[in-house]
Write a structure and sequence with these properties.
Number of helices: 11
Distance between the termini: 106 Å
Structural class: mainly alpha
Oligomer: single chain
Helix content: 55-70%
Number of strands: 7
Mean pLDDT: 77
Low-confidence stretches: 285-327, 418-476, 546-552
Strand order of the largest sheet: 6-5-4-3-7
Shape: elongated
Radius of gyration: 55 Å
């Protein structure tokens, strides 16, 4: 008798199942989005090929970070697995189950509605036969009373009495027939009602109950699967995390320090001690007109230490004025210290040898193909490969000449690279050749306030002999005239040699325009100059500048 309530309850159960399906579906979308974001994050911090970042990953700490990125990529893959498994094992199966459940529910309630309608029809038939029986009984009773009244009346003819009697009999027979029909209908209705309440409806309700219980069991199984899908990837995620820990434990600070030493080792020997220059000796002379005039005439060049004088720079002094233009490095890397130059030359020789080997492999392949064409002319024309073969041979010859050139430079550097202590002996030999050092014949430079070294006129020859190997690289250049000004549009951190750092909004002087390589040479003051990217500054050139300007 709770058919309607059951119908509402089963619909609610299906709604709950669909809500759970929606929940799992949204969880899979979150997992996919999370995996995608992790992959993008890992890709974002991956080193770019053929870039400075790729060189940085020689260090163990950077290698560990790279391993972390790779493990995070695998970690993201496990979240994709979670999404895929939840979709295939839960949402897809449950969606199919819901459709089957809806069809079964519809069929069961259709059977129930049909049984209800049948019972209503039987009830209507019973009520109809009952009313007819009641009506016929009343008609028979009235006919009997009418007959008895006619029979008692002496004024009524015998024929009328007979007619009333026959009418009463007919009505009585109709009442009996209605009674029999009503009894049959009642018996049939009771039987149908018994079957309805004890057979049909219980059977339908049983099917609905089984359907509902299957729904409940299925949602419970789905929740277990939901947990198991997560549990299955935990060991692999654990391995990813173990990989990150292992990479972190592999970091070796000593190894990284050694790499830095090897990368920036110059091969120079430290300079010797600077000797004391005694400027008080002229004060000890006997003061006379001649000596006074002589001291005035001779002392001028000696008292220049307060100003600026051009001198040589040691390559490792912080404020050296090397302004090597980026992208315009000498072919033989002569701008680099000996050790760095040797490494660059060796790297260049290795690259050329690889290119030569590649070209030789290509030549061998073309030669083999030409032989095949000669043996089987139908496959191709051998003469068509002559031009390509000649071109490859020319490339090989060019590369070999280039490699020989760099090998000669490399041999020169390796032969000239001083052993430890050799430069000190060479310097002492120079000093011996020049005689005993005096206050005005010291071969060392004197450091000026801006970090460079100055020297006396009497010392220039000795310093030139000492710095012969590095004159081309480390001579102070004459200051270039300013040809305009510029304003820094963005902050630039000049970390490479030859560049200069600028701050956004800073006004500086332009001393060399962009030559097409994207760099502009600027000056902040007479000690600080270098290159900045042209796109980082807004240049205002002085059209009247003809190279006659000096430091501003």
């Amino acid at each position: 008798d709770q058919f309607d309530n059951l119908e509402k309850h089963t619909q609610w159960g299906i709604d709950v199942l669909e809500k759970y399906i929606k929940f799992v579906k949204e969880r899979t979308e979150i997992e996919l989005s999370y995996a995608k974001q992790l992959r993008n994050l890992s890709k974002k911090y991956q080193p770019k090929k053929n870039s400075k970042e790729e060189e940085e990953y020689r260090y163990t700490s950077c290698k560990a970070f790279l391993s972390t990125l790779n493990e995070m990529n695998d970690y993201a893959g496990q979240h994709e697995v979670i999404s895929e498994n939840m979709t295939s094992q839960i949402t897809t199966d449950l969606a199919r189950f819901v459709q089957e459940l809806k069809q079964e529910r519809k069929s069961n309630f259709h059977d129930g509605r049909k049984a209800q309608q049948h019972m209503e029809t039987c009830w209507k038939q019973l009520e109809s036969s009952k009313r007819r029986f009641e009506r016929d009984c009343k008609e028979a009773d009235r006919a009997q009373q009418y007959f008895e009244k006619m029979d008692a009346d002496i004024n009524v003819t015998k024929a009328d009495v007979e007619k009333a009697r026959q009418q009463a009999q007919i009505r009585h027979q109709m009442a009996e027939d209605s009674k029999a029909d009503y009894s049959s209908s009642l018996q049939k209705f009771n039987q149908e009602q018994h079957e309805y309440y004890h057979t049909h409806i219980p059977s339908i309700f049983q099917k609905i109950q089984e359907m509902e219980e299957r729904r409940i069991v299925r949602i419970g199984e789905s929740m277990k699967t939901y947990a198991e899908v997560d549990r299955q990837v935990i060991p692999i995620i654990g391995k990813c995390l173990d990989g990150i820990v292992k990479a972190a434990e592999a970091i070796n600070q000593k190894s990284d320090s050694q790499l830095v030493i090897e990368a920036y080792k110059s091969g120079f020997e430290p300079p010797g001690d600077i000797e004391f220059e005694d400027y008080t000796q002229p004060m000890k002379r006997t003061v006379s007109d001649n000596s006074l005039s002589n001291s005035r005439g001779d002392g001028k060049p000696e008292l220049k230490f307060g100003g600026k004088s051009k001198g040589k720079l040691w390559p490792f002094i912080k404020k050296n004025k090397l302004s090597l233009k980026l992208g315009a490095t000498p072919e033989d890397f002569s701008n680099l210290p000996p050790e760095q130059r040797r490494k660059k030359l060796q790297q260049k020789v290795d690259e050329l040898n690889k290119e030569i080997q590649k070209e030789m492999d290509q030549r061998d392949a073309i030669t083999k193909m030409k032989d095949v064409y000669l043996k089987n002319p139908q496959m191709g024309d051998p003469a068509s490969l002559d031009h390509k073969l000649t071109e490859v041979s020319q490339n090989i010859e060019k590369l070999r000449l280039e490699a020989q050139k760099f090998e000669a430079w490399l041999a020169e550097v390796e032969g000239r690279l001083p052993a430890r202590g050799e430069q000190a002996r060479r310097q002492s030999g120079m000093y011996d050749g020049q005689g005993a050092p005096t206050a005005n014949s010291c071969a060392q430079d004197r450091e000026s306030p801006d970090g460079s070294y100055t020297e006396e006129r009497s010392q220039e020859n000795e310093v030139k002999v000492l710095a012969t190997d590095f004159d081309d690289e480390f001579d102070d250049e004459e200051p270039l005239p300013a040809i305009g000004t510029c304003k820094a549009l963005y902050t630039f951190e000049g970390q490479n040699e030859g560049t200069i750092s600028v701050i956004e909004g800073e006004i500086l002087y332009v001393i060399e325009e962009d030559k097409g390589d994207g760099w502009t040479r600027i000056r902040r003051n007479e000690d600080e100059e270098g290159y900045v990217p042209t796109s980082y500054v807004e240049v205002y050139l002085d059209k009247n500048a003809k190279g006659a300007k000096t430091y501003i």
